[in-house]
Amino acid sequence: MGIERGGRFPQNHSVQASGNPENLEVALKGGGLQIWGEIKLRADAVLRGTVRGSVDGAEKVIVAKEAVVSGTVRGSDVRVEGEVAGGVTASGRVWIGAQGKVRVRVSGKAVRIEPGAEFQGQLEVG
Amino acid sequence: MESENFISTVCRGCGHYFKSERAKETGRKKVRRALVQKRELTCAECGSVQEVAAEALSSTCLDCGRHLELGHREISGEFLGNLSLEGDLKIGPKGNFGGSRARAVRIVVQGRASGFLEAAECLRVEGKVKLRAGASGGKLEIQAGAALETGEPVQFASGEIEGELRCPEARFTGPLRVGPQGVLMAEKVSFTELTVEEGARVRSVV
After folding, report:
1. Which of B191, B202, B205 sits opposite A126 (nearest CB)?
2. How many CB pairs lie under 8 A apart between chains A and B?
């Protein structure tokens, strides 16, 4: 995992990356913590926090229930349980859970939108 | 003195009426009528539900007086009138429904139809179908290799697309599934739940 740019981290907040290199969990701890800029992820990742920018994942990306991403989320497979305002692009599957919210665009090889999920925008599959 | 085969008689002295033992033995047995199988029927006009015999071919709505055609029909040639059936409608491969509206519980389309199709339970597309008007109903099923193209919106409770659907707007009040060979091209689509399997193609705005 690498954070290329940005980061206004007050002293009482932290960014934690835990797990083995093949399965990282990015936990942004502390109320109101935000990351500005693009996050590049080279392994499977779970996002828990607010990202004011895009997330560019090479592998599976999970946007957890409490996570908010204002930009685009890319990955091989993307699962959204939180909020993504800039759209989701996957080279594989996109899965939007019952509490997930996605706007602008969803693009992938296969898509599953659960009942209760919110999606508004362009849908491109295949 | 009565005949030995007498069934009943009246006493000449007191006028009492009585039956012979023989008559009691050969008394009429009650014929048990076979139970008539019934089914529920919903009037397409007023929506009232009533029971009709399962084998009935037509009935009249007890509430609104509408004539209800209960049988099935297959269109294998040109058909220009409107249709309203409480049974199934099949438009065969060489059939052409040229009326403005057809309503049935289940509709199978293999040929052509230029009018609006309303299938209360299911509309199944088994051929290359072009509809000048739209379609609505319970479930939309498009078989693999089949195609439905309309110039007007379609509205169904749920959808199962293994073939191709092209329309300006597709509204599903329930789940929509696009199979691996399915194609959905709509300017706008709505649903409560969506599953698009790998291999399918979808271009739309939600």
Report:
1. B202
2. 46
